[in-house]
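User: Could you check the structure of this?
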Amino acid sequence: MEKIILFDGVCNLCNFGVQFVIKRDPKKQFKFASIQSEIGEKLMIKHYGKVELDSFVYIEGKNSYKKSTAALKVCKHLRGAWKLLFILLIIPTPIRDFFYGKIAKNRYKMFGKKDSCMLPSPELKERFLS
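Assistant: Sure, the predicted structure tokens are below.
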């Protein structure tokens, strides 16, 4: 089953998150696309009807998840103790997404922003959709 992560390609926090997942995904299960890319926009529209830059999106087969649910579902597949964070799904979505939204709204102020989307290194290029 294909596992795709959509992220804000100019957000430093989001780019850190992608690097974090890559380092903890030795099976190379995840593929990545920035929401600003053509494929990212198409996937966002297909799953949500619009493009939302303030949301982390995880697509697993025909299912898609946003915000805190997406992040926790990804954690389930990571190497190490990170998979234990999956249990936080027991917290109601509105509560989790309230805190997610606070960080998402202020992510550029807190972590900075790039002028353009990250370009993957040659060894990571196969993991990024284009």
